[in-house]
UniProtKB/TrEMBL annotation:
It comes from Clavibacter michiganensis subsp. insidiosus. Residues 99-234 form the UspA domain. CDD domains: USP-like. This is Universal stress protein. InterPro entries: Rossmann-like_a/b/a_fold, Universal_stress_UspA, UspA.
Length: 244
């Protein structure tokens, strides 16, 4: 027979599945209790068109972790979309809210925007496409007035955001998309712009420290510390299949 720990896990899974099936009879829910490292097992049991959903730590305890959380580990090694739900998140906080997508002009953020728009179409909500940029430094050697230079940079970033939205919206033309080009630190700006949203969607790509090079420093920080569900989308994830 199964070891006591495995049997206890199976019983717990069966009880949870039964409880969730009663609460959501419109859904098909099944459960499995498996052995192995969570990221290995979840990667093996999910196909490329699967949305993998895992729980995260509470925001209040996220700074105390020493080990990379499972959501971040999955996102760094998976070509799937991975959703991380904070332990202390209240679903009621996102009721009536839309979907926020971080856009930086990369292939990964394009995939994230497509994902967000498909999800918004299914949930009948809007999307806020947020592009965060840093105010330029102004040197004496540049013969352009500071205000004029900043306006030039702002226009370039607004154009980048507009191009990204137009390209990503061809499959979901009826989804309302609000464009927000804001200056600031990407993590803090995205968290601020996501207040009241049901989820934040970001791309997975290299940009940052060596440890987080496979996910991206901003996406990694959001997965670990954001106060709302964060979906990390790999550029090769088949969005339409995931959301069908």
């Amino acid at each position: 027979g199964a070891a006591p720990g495995v049997q206890a896990a199976r019983t717990a899974v069966e009880e949870r599945v039964s409880r969730e099936a009663r609460a959501h009879p419109e859904l098909r829910i099944r459960g499995e209790a498996l052995t192995g490292s969570p990221e290995d097992v979840l990667s093996r049991w999910s196909s490329p068109d699967t949305l993998v959903v895992v729980g995260g730590a509470s925001v209040s305890r996220s700074r105390l972790r020493r080990r990379m959380p499972i959501g971040e580990r999955l996102a760094t090694r998976s070509c799937r979309a991975v959703a991380v739900i904070p332990a202390d998140w209240d679903p009621a906080e996102g009721v009536g809210g839309g979907i926020v997508v971080g856009v930086d002009g990369t292939r990964s953020s394009h995939a994230a925007l497509r994902f967000g728009e498909h999800e918004a179409e299914r949930d009948r909500v809007g999307v806020a496409a947020v592009h965060v940029w840093t105010e330029p430094y102004v040197w004496d050697q540049i013969y352009v007035p500071a205000d004029e230079l900043r306006e030039i940079v702002r226009t370039q970033h607004r154009d980048l955001l507009e191009d990204a939205v137009v390209e990503a919206s061809d499959e979901t033309p009826d989804v309302p998309v609000e464009r927000r080009a804001v200056a600031g630190h990407p993590y803090f700006a995205l968290v601020r712009e996501s207040a009241g949203a049901r989820m934040l969607v970001v791309g997975s790509h290299s940009h940052g420290s060596l440890v987080r090079r496979l996910l991206g420093s901003v996406s990694a920080t959001l997965v670990a510390m954001a106060p709302l569900p964060v979906v990390v989308v790999h550029p090769t994830a088949p969005v339409s299949a995931v959301l069908s």
